[in-house]
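User: Hi! Is it possible to get a structure for several chains at once, not just one? Here's what I have:
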Amino acid sequence: MSEAILYSADGDTETVLAAPGLRVSRTRPVARFAFRGDAAAAGKAGAAFGASLPMTPLAANQVAARAALWLGPDEWLLLAADEPPAAIAAGIEAALADVPHALVDVSERNLALLVEGERAARLLNTQVFLDLDLAAFPVGMATRTLFAKAEIILWRLGDEAFAVECWRSFAPYIEGLLLEGARGL
Amino acid sequence: MLLIQCPYCAVERPELEFRYGGEAHIARPESPSELTDEQWADFLYMRSNPKGVMAERWRHVHGCGRFFNALRDTVSDRFLAVYKAGEPRPAIEVSAPAAPNKETGR
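Assistant: Yes, the chains can be modeled jointly so their relative placement is included. Here is the combined structure:
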């Protein structure tokens, strides 16, 4: 599956939780960027990045090991697992030399948890107050939202697979609540 | 909990994702130094606080991060319309406030 190229489980420390129909795992570090700019800047950035920046609200566009997630009308999260952050930033900055924009390396700020299995949506719904039915939250949809009191970016990778991008310092809080939630399912 | 439509994300989201931003359509005076203290205090502090339909700012802080405006009935707490920042206030016919419920007095 293509998402496995972007997010791969992180060796020895990968498993947070494994239960019937449920698996939560940590992922290897990937390059992450917060990109701000208007539509013209986003178009050029997408061409340089290799995955175009979606203009549709809540959309995500993944091309092999790179992805661009719509976060706001002028804000995107860029993810890449195939090159170090500096090389990617240099490529985008070169293409955007004459266009106002902001490209910030946030690789170390976030980490991603994979929540997979037939009960994944139910587990997330213990703390996420969104309708995660496939009709309301289809595969490929990505959004910033709240997980209890922590802000996350929730991205549906498959029918039964979600990525939870959270701030690094919030991860123990989120993992702890996922463990607690799984006990009550 | 209120469900609030975000005009940028085009979805309804729980109130938890939003922050209230006060009354909308209050423009900062062009040249504050030319105002009297009373006029400046009016701009800073005086709000209409209506009983009924009110235009107010909201921010989808845990979503797209954008400020937008909403028309909300302060009696029923219903959102009548949401619109993007910079757009004019939509014309909404204001229905008479509902008669108080005799049993609850509200």
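Chain A touches chain B at residues 57-58, 71-73, 75, 129-130, 143-146, 151 (CB under 8 Å). The radius of gyration of chain A is 16 Å.

User: Great, thank you!
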